[in-house]
Write a structure and sequence with these properties.
about 250 residues, globular, eight-stranded mixed β-sheet, alpha/beta
């Protein structure tokens, strides 16, 4: 493992200026790039630490703040933001209403352009990983930008195969990336029937993929979550690094 260094930048999108965090490994590169899609609690120390740790394994990491359309905000507490009805309402109305998959896929084109323009990023396909809502976005990005994404991971992502017109599983025929999906045994947003539906879609499309269910609860990766599980979080790192190590140049 290497050390890493962080810089905060602003990336111009169609809808404004997106604060983003760049983590570079120590040394001069070039490195393979990874785009991290945050979870639904937003940017906070635990999310930044995850991106930083990924960079120490030799990846150029970009972590954009997908809630930028809603303006600046204080770091949210996952212990209360979903359990408190008022905070949950605020989250839905202020943040989720603007951070739609369609709007974030527009942003993703700009994020990919930013990565491609960096002299210390290796050319070729990048990796994506996402958590909670970011898991959905990671798979959606793989289907939206198939020629630019070589590996896509989703951890405790929800609504991955629904009846919605923008459900990620509908993009399976377009996906060229190797895909890894990890659900939880206790997760109402990714029940067994949804797992089977996603499995069928990816298999029928010939996508190189693996879907697993961890003995954990939704949200187990981030250390500040009430459902954080150290063993499952470590397994997350093992599977994520194996995915990127086998696919990224």
């Amino acid at each position: 493992m290497q050390n890493s260094r962080m810089s905060k930048i602003e990336i111009k999108t169609q809808d404004g200026s997106c604060p983003s965090y760049v983590y570079r490994p120590s040394g001069s590169g070039p490195w393979s790039a990874v785009l991290v899609f945050m979870d639904g609690v937003g940017i906070r120390p635990a999310m930044l630490e995850l991106a930083e740790q990924l960079a120490t394994h030799g990846y150029f990491v970009l972590l954009p703040d997908l809630f930028y359309r809603s303006g600046p905000y204080e770091p949210m507490n996952p212990h209360t933001v979903f359990s408190d009805p008022e905070q949950r309402k605020m989250l839905m109305e202020r943040f989720f209403s603007k951070a739609t998959p369609a709007s974030i896929m527009r942003d993703t084109s700009v994020f990919l352009d930013y990565l491609a323009a960096q002299p210390d990023v290796k050319p070729g396909g990048i990796g994506t990983t996402g958590y909670c809502m970011g898991g959905l976005l990671s798979l959606t990005a793989a289907g939206t930008y198939p020629d630019r994404i070589a590996a896509a991971a989703s951890y405790h992502g929800g609504r991955l195969a629904t009846d919605a017109v923008d459900s990620p599983h509908l993009l399976a025929p377009s996906i060229k990336a190797r895909v890894y999906v990890a659900g939880a045994i206790e997760d109402a947003s990714f029940p067994d029937e949804m797992k089977a539906r996603l499995e069928q879609a990816l298999s029928s499309a010939g996508v190189d993929h693996r879907i697993e269910t961890y003995p954990a609860k939704h949200g187990w990766v981030l250390r500040d979550a009430p459902t954080y599980d150290a063993a499952a979080a470590e397994r997350h790192w093992q599977t994520l690094l194996a995915l990127f190590g086998s696919t990224l140049v």
